[in-house]
Input
Amino acid sequence: MTLDRELMQTIIARYPRSRSAIMPLLHYVQSVSGYVTNEGIETISEILAIETAEVSAVATFYTQYKRKPVGEYHVGVCTNTLCAVMGGDAIFSALKDHLGIENDGVTADGKVSLEHIECNAACDYAPVVMANWEFYDNQSVESAKSLVDGARAGNPPAPTRGPNKLVTYKEASAVLAGLDDGLAREGVQAGAPTLLGLKLSKEGK
Amino acid sequence: MTTTQESAVAVEMITVVIDGFEVTVPKGTLIIRAAEKLGIQIPRFCDHPLLDPVGACRQCLVDVEINGRAFPKPQASCTIPVEPNMIVKTQLTSPVADKAQKGVMELLLGNHPLDCPVCDKGGECPLQNQAMSNGRPDARLDGYKRTFEKPINISSSVLLDRERCVLCARCTRFSEQIASDPFITLNERGALQQVGIYENDPFKSYFSGNTVQICPVGALTGASYRFRARPFDLVSTPSACEHCASGCDMRTDVRRGKTLRRLAGDDPSVNEEWNCDKGRWAFKYVTAVDRLTHPLVRNSSGELVQASWPEALAAAAAGLKGKRAAVLTGGRVTTEDAYGYSKFARIALSTNDIDYRARVTSDEERDFLAAHVAGSSTTYRDIDLADHVALVAFEPEEESPIVFLRLNKNFKKRGLKVSAVATKSSIAMDKLKADFIKVAPGAEPTAVASLALTAKSIILVGERASESAGLFSAVAVLSAKTGAKIAYIPRRAGERGALEAGALGTVLPGGRPVADAAARVDIAAAWGVGSLPSTPGRTSVQIIDALASKELDAVVVGGVDAHDLPAGSKALDAMKSAFVVSLEIAPSAITALADVVLPVAAITEKSGSFLNWEGRARAFDEAVADSHNRSDVRILSMIADAMGESIMLGTVSAAAREFNQLGKWDGARVQLAPVSPVAPKSVAGNQALLTSWRRLLDMGTLQKGEDNLAGTRRQTVAVISPKRADAIGIKTGQQVRVSNAHGSITIPVLVEDIHEDAVWIPRNSFASQSLVALDAVHGDVVTVVKA
Amino acid sequence: MSKLTPVLSAHWDQADSFTIEAYTRNGGYTASKKALAMDPDAVIQLVKDSGLRGRGGAGFPTGMKWGFIPQGDNKDHYLVVNADESEPGTCKDMPLLLANPHVLVEGCIIACHAIRAERAFIYIRGEVTHVVRRMNAAIADAYKAGHLGNGIDITLHIGAGAYICGEETALLDSLEGFRGQPRLRPPFPAIAGLYARPTVVNNVESISSVPAIINNGAEWYQSMGTEKSKGATLYSLSGHVNNPGQFEAPLGITLREILELAGGVRTGHTLKFWTPGGSSTPLFTDAHLDIPLDYEGVAAAGSMLGTKALQIFDETTCVVRAVLRWTEFYKHESCGKCTPCREGTWWLVQILRDLENGTGSEADLEKLLDLCDNIMGRSFCALGDGATSPITSSIKYFRDEYIAHVTNGACPFDPVKSTLFAGAVN
Output
């Protein structure tokens, strides 16, 4: 795949000043190459007319930008305190053993990569696992294993709160570059914990 | 000058109390600097007076109270300007500030290696010093220290030891704010944050050495100095840079007779605290080349053989005495030496045939120098006050880098408008967002005529203006019409001094016109001679022609590289049949054919001064004390003595004293006879008009022996326009051949913003020495084809 | 009468709540119509009168923030919405945007009108693909419906994993295409924010609260909450409780009340410690169950209301482990700009790790507290301060437990007992 410079220009056009586009452009590079390649950094440098060092300074600051390939399905296990205590540590440890990889590792088939992540704003669904940054709520060791097994087999389970089918890492990166994939209307509007207060209120509690 | 204008703006003064002492400082002064005024040193790392405040290291925390209200927590004194009714308590009077500072210092040291004994910075290290003055006496952080692979070469000149870095970001801020070269940046995040380059693009900034100098720890080191010395083994001498006319104040550090490093000096009116990498690192030429150690005299069988000083001086005197002789000095000699050559020509040789311009020149330029440059005083400060700066035949970053920094400062701080009349765009023009007035080589005068300047504007005109007929005239007319000041910026350090010293055929010392009888009487009286020759002297071109046609018998040559001259091989041919006395530091094509060769002192071995482009004296002492080599002026004086035509300049200080006593000419100046422009030659097909200038880092003689520096040169390229690239079917990076009847140059092409009729190549870069290879100058027709 | 007051969450139980159709059906985009007909200053006054305070953690009065924007200065103004929600425990904005992104769009329209901005940026964290889809679609649909594009535009900017970008000036640098490191202040964003133009930076929930205030009036909003903390807000309950989730209630409700609604702490267990507003807010214990959860009440008890992220930990949880993990988070997320935070978190983690492993000493506690003293209030921004909160507050309440690790030579807790799965078994 090659970078589509015309498309990159449309991303730049979203902003009053071109340099603001550096982050979506980096997401876009990941959507094409699966990670931030040197070609990506050099191309962004060229079209934004800034130095390559300035692009790599940004690319290395944010954890979602990967400087080496990740899996087709990038799995993040929340091990921040609350999720860790509620089972995130056990899940992460089990997945490492199950997949035979360490943190930031990729399975030999390139299908799954694993990362322990920080709080992902879904604490009422703890423990939380993200795959390509889609929510997998209330996970257990078993459910997390089925998630990665499904991913390796090419049929991962659908996210708890997300589209009907888990997209690939590159496809998710395109969404994060601000490109529409038409899946916004799929999936639930909310899970039960989100609705708990409303439900109780309607019950007069 | 501008003093009245400046004093008209009253500066509001503010009085604050720091540690119980009142101090009154201008509004806007930061607390940390107000404290300095009281002699109170607040420890700091990220703070640098020439960089924007950042408040990152948190070392300078102090307690602050304004109008009786205290800040709830200590504040970074490097970020807060003083205010009325402010009371500051530093570590000296506030236990809270003292603990905060000790706490920050402990954290800075926690991950810092204990490698001071092998660190270049040891002994002159702000971290070491301030840890002693403001740190805890004991260490209690005993876990794992952060380590990195060490060191990394971020360029061939600069190495980075990341584990030593305290992340003050001085280097990255310098590169971005001062040099506009953000090739080094902070990368990664948090505890892993580190300075770095993008892996494929090294730190090739002309100003990279400044980051080494301002690094408050030993994280950035210069490849040429690393592990070479301890600061306390060095003898430091204030010096001035010999590499260009910017006029940087410098410091030269010598150990046991050998220069080990040079640093930028602090002169707020000139280079502030910066210099360029050439000035910093190109000093090995003094020792790298095979220095001439003894006089040489050509014997009866035509061989150049070692001789004693008396023999050599006698031979020189005999060969010059009563002969029709001229003097050629390069632009590299000091003012005192130039004065020696000037006086030597007039008294010992009875001639005005002297020219310091060892380069492409014109008669128009000589008149312009006499009329508009000698005795003039446009300064860096004028750039600070200008409303508009026009660059004419001048590429500031390549040809006078500190002028570029000053322009850049004014562009960044106050949006200074810059216009450039040029054949091609440049990196500096991009950085300055200059209005690029694109012309064909030779068409500059017309473009200059239409510049909209005011009496507050400045025209910075380079020596290359001599390569376009009518360009100096156009500058003079524009200045007369608009009131804009002229600043002539030659490339070499000694040119302005040589002009003022009279090392030019039409000008006597102090800018006195040779043609003016009163001026001649002035100087003759001062020199104690009856009269001075009245015939205006030949130019360097005419001198070479006259040598070739045997109208001149002899020539004294000092500090000239034959390759500097247009038609250098012709000059060498002309000299072969003449009697040549060569004063040089090292063997050259000219010493090889000379009849008498007299070794002279290199810059570090002598005292003296240069006049920078402003006309400001930049004096220096000898840094290497025991070389036994002598400055040119001393040797000229000895030759003159041997000729029986004494010039009485036995020492540099005698020359300086005498030159300064002469003062400036206050009589009528030479009038510049306007020269009409010549239309650019027409080109068709593969033909193009050559345009060319020197890069800062190139094959220059004074850069010899410094391979690390050479590694940061900009790539040698030939620049053509997109239209021409299409026409010859070539893309950036492919090889192009630029040729004429004389020869050819084949180098990679860069397709860029350049006049369509033009092709640009560097004048003296690796694989592209245009004067030698093509014998062609600005505006000459060459052929450009895909190689 | 219910203690809950669903306003933001009122229609989340409709399956299509996130669509423009549902939002319009539920009365959406009437407030913006009303506000656009008002004088901008009157909108600011109304928001001031409502008493709405920033819901991102600091609680600064929203209307006052808007009022700081210089008017008639002939400069572009910007609204920037902070949707970077990353504070551990905080999980209100993402479900809000998943369920109803249009309320934020409408809030942006009103806020832009009030501060005379033609453009809003929504800076959303990057680790939430589906929320991004919903937000992007909502903006696109609002354009199609003509709510946007007529003088007010919204650009969605997607982050890439950096907690520090929740700090408003770091967020602005990030949005401008730089590393997300906090800026020196002054100048404050109201004077020189995005692209050095006057800028308001508000949290998602703050802006989303505005349409209801416009429609129902300041008095209605004032009628909820306490004296200085007006209105209703989302409390996010998580951790060792029987029923975690979002509870929209008037400010000033207590944890005891919320826990009652949620069916209490995990059955068979007791409350040990909790955060009132995310990990940067000093911990509370069961002694604080009746503290009114408003800005003043929580502050008076020695913590901060923060983001109202109520993370509940029962007696099976090792507080040292919890604090170590949070500290590792701060170390990971420290931007690196300033010494105390960058270097301090490096050492805090090591000391805490030794303590948790049982290889630490009692003296380490004093070292920890002294290091915290050298970080708190010494770092460039509040991240460093936040890093010290769990440590100092946990030592304050659970010093004995730290000591027990030392004397025991190991952590006395079984981590399995704290897990959700273990809880299910019990």
Remarks:
- Chain C is about 45% helix and 10% strand.
- Chain C touches chain A through 94 residues (CB under 8 Å).
- The beta strands of chain C are 78-83, 119-124, 153-158, 199-203, 232-239, 245-250, 271-275, 284-285, 309-314.
- The longest strand of chain C covers residues 232-239.
